[in-house]
Specification:
A hairpin with a 4-residue loop joins strand 8 and strand 9. It is built from 17 helices and 20 strands. It has about 500 residues and is of the alpha/beta class.
Length: about 500
């Protein structure tokens, strides 16, 4: 890894050797006499415009195959992985062309020269032309699936994992390479096994949960978790092991590849750009209020291409390989059933008293990171042979309850309405629902959508002096609404 950093540092300092591609070599002149009579062996350009300088910069960065532009960034290879050069580095390099010579040919007379004038804006234009010459948008998207370590690359090979030397062909970003060796014949780490057994003690499907954890973690480490469209969601009160499980997952990934982008922020193209450099996205809490419908979060959790953009830069397309894991004390409601289907609920109900908590556990887990990774990669073989993750039985039941609670109208109707031969005006029902949904943290809904959701529940209606539904509001629900209006949230408005 030191070679990569050295290569990038030499580039920033302007001392990198120049490797000039044949099709972009400006003339080099010898014999340009200086005032002192010496010979100045100097670089000169034919035009000195952004197009020529951009082609020259692309050629200077390195020999063909050692430099590429992907995800709107320029990357350099040196022996192990690909290191990123940000636009500021490239702009500084482009500005070194200011003051260099442009040849002016005059028929029948000796050539003369002028000096290049280059503003910061023009230098940025040179960088953009350089990127055009190096453009390969699918370079990392088409990289082999697997994980890089200090001693090898674990590559997904059909239904098995092949361990081989790390090469240029693996297209590994520097920040995605683990700094430790991948152990061989390593057993399950005691700290994690004990943690999972404690967090899920008493669960009828403990073995299923543990197997799911290890197989999913292996897929996440090797960058294929999005294939299975499964995102673990740890649910439970404080001190039930959720944070420690997140920590055990995080230590398996290089520090620079760990992100924490909340679900609701994934609709922001700048946040997606930040996430594009990650291999694991771990978020300690979901929002307490209703999850809004969003195509971007669903696409990212499923590995579908999305458009990202960094501030002041052009958009680029990203095919997500980043795995995600979330934790929550309580489940927020959502009307988006497709979004809820992406999550696998793993309840953590066993609170550990403070006097029994192991304060050294995070350090023990971090020390066992290589063994955790080895155990997860080993478990991945079963997943590859089977072709799909097996969700624990408890996760199916929890998901059904979550979907019911996520449908605000259905939950309200189940709690507050009773079918009757009598009827209630549509507006009266809507006003009662609006009070209920505010007390329970649901997003506001207009009357049109409310009517559609009632209709989807199969409730009968009639038109008599306005629309009426063949239901009555239960007496206890009316009393609860009145109490909230007079002495609760409404009274404070």
């Amino acid at each position: 890894m030191g070679n990569v950093l050295d290569y990038a540092d030499r580039f920033k300092a302007g001392t990198m050797p120049r490797h000039i591609l044949d099709d972009a070599v400006p003339d080099k002149l010898e014999g340009d006499r200086t005032g002192g009579g010496g010979t100045d062996v100097a670089q000169s350009f034919q035009r000195g415009d952004e197009a020529e300088l951009g082609a020259h910069l692309a050629a200077e960065l390195g020999p063909k195959g050692d430099v590429v532009c992907a995800e709107n960034r320029v990357w350099l290879f040196n022996g192990a992985s690909w290191a990123m050069l940000d636009d500021e580095d490239l702009t500084r390099r482009a500005l070194t062309y200011a003051g260099q010579r442009v040849r002016i040919a005059k028929p029948g007379a000796p050539d003369t020269f002028r000096r290049i004038r280059l503003s910061s804006t023009a230098a940025k234009g040179v960088v953009q032309i350089c990127k055009v010459h190096l453009h390969d948008p699918n370079f990392f998207a088409e990289a082999p699936a697997g994980a890089a370590f200090a001693n090898c690359f674990a590559r997904i090979d059909g239904k098995s994992v092949a361990v081989e030397p790390l090469t240029r062909a693996h297209r590994v970003k520097r920040e995605h390479a683990a700094p430790f060796n991948l152990p061989t014949n390593a057993g399950r780490p005691e700290s994690v096994d004990r943690l999972l057994a404690q967090a899920w003690a008493g669960c009828d499907d403990l073995d299923e949960r543990v197997r799911y954890f290890w197989e999913w973690l292996g897929a996440a480490i090797c960058g294929i978790a999005t294939r299975y469209k499964d995102t673990p969601l740890l649910v439970g009160p404080k001190d039930t092991g959720k944070s420690q499980i997140l920590h055990a997952i995080s230590v398996c990934f290089p520090a620079d590849s760990r992100k924490s982008v909340p679900l609701q922020a994934m609709s922001n193209e700048y946040q997606r750009a930040h996430l594009s450099d990650g291999r694991i996205n771990r978020v300690n809490e979901l929002p307490a209020r209703e999850l809004l419908d969003g195509e971007a979060p669903k696409a990212i959790l499923s590995g579908d291409p999305v458009v990202c953009r960094r501030p002041c830069e052009k958009p680029f397309e990203w095919t997500p390989r980043c795995a995600h894991v979330f934790a929550a004390n309580e489940l927020p409601p959502s009307r988006d059933a497709a979004l809820l289907d992406r999550f696998v609920l793993l309840a953590c109900a066993n609170a550990v008293p403070r006097e029994q908590q192991d304060r050294a556990l995070p350090d023990k887990i971090a020390a066992e990171a290589p063994q955790i990774v080895a155990a997860a990669v080993s478990a991945l073989t079963d997943l590859l042979l089977r072709g799909h993750l097996v969700r624990p039985q408890s996760a199916h039941a929890a998901a059904s309850d979550w979907k019911l609670n996520g449908d605000a109208v259905a939950t309200w109707a189940l709690e507050c309405l009773e079918v009757s031969d009598k009827s209630t005006p549509a507006m009266e029902l809507y006003e009662h629902f609006d009070e209920w949904r505010e007390r329970n943290g649901h997003t506001r809904m207009n009357t049109t959508n409310f009517g559609r959701r009632l209709g989807a529940l199969g409730l009968g209606h009639l038109h008599s002096n306005g629309k009426r539904w063949r239901v009555l509001i239960r007496p206890h629900a009316r009393r609860a609404g009145s109490a909230a209006w007079s002495g609760g949230q409404r009274a404070s408005e």
